[in-house]
Amino acid sequence: PVRPIMVCNDGPTMAIARYITPLLWSIFDRATNCIRFSNGVIDVVHAIERYAQNGHLKPSALFVTLNMDNLTTIFSHEQTIAALKSLLSDQLKDQMIQGITVDTMIELVYIVLQNQFCVSNNKLYQQFKGGASGLPLTMLLAYINMFYGQHR
After folding, report:
1. What SS3 class is residue 30?
2. Backbone phi, then psi, for 40, in 5-degree steps?
3. Which of 27, 117, 145, 152 is the most buried (most CB within 10 A)?
4. Which residue from 2, 32, 7, 3 is spatially nearest to 119, judged by alpha carbons?
5. 96 - beta bridge partners?
6. Which domain of life is it from (predicted)?
7. What DSSP character marks residue 76?
8. Residue 19 and residue 126: Cα distance in Å, rounded?
C-alpha cells in the first residue's frame, strides 16, 4: 500500500541534526557494540566471510531479516529523550561530548524533534511522534529508544 511519509532534506534544523548525529552514533556504537554497514550488502557479505573464516559460522546458522513498519514514525519524543539521557549518562562520565554538555546535546535533539513541520493541502502540520524519513538523526533515535528505552 502507498503511505505518505514526511521527508526532510533541507529543513531549518538539518544543520543541527547533521552535526550531532555522528557524535551520538559513536556513543551508541560504543555502548551497544553494534556493527553498522555503510555499503549495505557488500559490507554484510564481507562480515559473514570474516565470521566464517574465524570458524564461527555453523551449518545450523539462520539468517533473518526484519522489516519494522513505522519504526521511525511511532516513537514518543519524551520517551526517546529519556532513553537518550540514560545512554549519555551511562556512557559519558564527564557529561561532555566534544566540548558540548549532555544537557546542551539533549536540548539540541529536542529542538530538532519539536521543529518537524510539513505543509499538505495548504495546512501546516507538526510531527509530534517519530521523526522525518530524511533526517539522519531519526533512525539513531529509534535505535536508542528501542535499546535504552527497553533496558531502563
Report:
1. helix
2. 60, -125
3. 145
4. 7
5. 101
6. Eukaryota
7. B
8. 23
Instruction: Specify which residues 76 forms β-bridges with.
Output: 129
Q: How far is CA 30 from CA 38, 51, 87, 100, in A?
A: 17, 20, 11, 18
From the list 129, 93, 89, 94, the residue with the least C-alpha distance to 106 is 89
Q: Which amino acid is at 117?
A: F
Q: Is 18 in a helix, a strand, or coil?
A: helix
| Helices 14-32 & 102-114 angle (0-180, nearest 10) | 120
Whether the Cβ atoms of residue 73 and residue 129 lie closer than 8 Å to each other: yes
